[in-house]
Amino acid sequence: MDTASPKTRFAPYGYAGIAIIIAAEVLLFGGNQLVGHWFTPIVWTGYILFVDALVFKLKARSLLMTDRLEFVIIAVVSIAGWWLFEFYNAPRFWKSNLELWWHYHDLEPNPYLRRVGYDWAFATIFPAMFETAALLRASVFSRRSERVSISIQPSRLTLGLMFAGGAVGALVPLIFPSVWCAPVVWLAFIF
């Protein structure tokens, strides 16, 4: 069943999520350095908790309440995916005297804790995207009476060419680090 019964409750961790976001904002504006170092993973964790509770209220299903294994898998894939993008960024950091790329600011100075912060922040990206999509499906797009379904059946040759194009696009920026290859990294994963 896609919609929740009227008795489905708002999960208590949703209140914790909104409290986390508000507290982090207040502490950040108050100059709290600890929150400043960890702001991204803290706030995105609060967002995930809040939105998941909303999804559960609307659909009686959610990643944290009923699909926990799926949530863990999404978080692990999120960490791996974003470390891959950090790998793409590494040559640009090594050539930082040219300022060809962006840099992180106000990070935890301890490298081991900073790694925990990276992993925690990266673990929130895909789950936040999936939670947002679930919320939109359960609310804004829930009333669509007619679903339009488009079926695309590419040939084996087309699939092979797309895969080859994606592989080339993923490798070129590693072999030839350049600011001009940045769009190629993102386009490679479409194929």
The end-to-end span amounts to: 34 Å
Low-confidence stretches: none
Helix vs. strand class: mainly alpha
- Assign an overall shape: flat
Give me the count of strands: 0
| Radius of gyration using CA atoms only | 20 Å
Strand content: under 5%
Tally of distinct domains:
2
Following the backbone from N to C, one meets helices and strands in this order, namely HHHHHH
Q: Residue share in helices?
A: 55-70%
Q: Roughly what is the average pLDDT, rounded to an integer?
A: 85
* Biggest pleated sheet: none
Q: Helix tally?
A: 6
Describe this entry's structure for a reader.
- The chain is an all-alpha fold.
- The protein folds into 2 domains: 12-147, no CATH class; 156-191, no CATH class.
- It is built from 6 helices and no strands.
- The radius of gyration is 20 Å and the shape is flat.
Short description:
Helices cover 66% and strands 0% of the residues. It has helices at 12-29, 33-59, 68-94, 111-138, 156-175, 182-188.
Give the SSE layout.
Elements: H1 12-29, H2 33-59, H3 68-94, H4 111-138, H5 156-175, H6 182-188
Give the tags.
flat; single chain; 191 residues
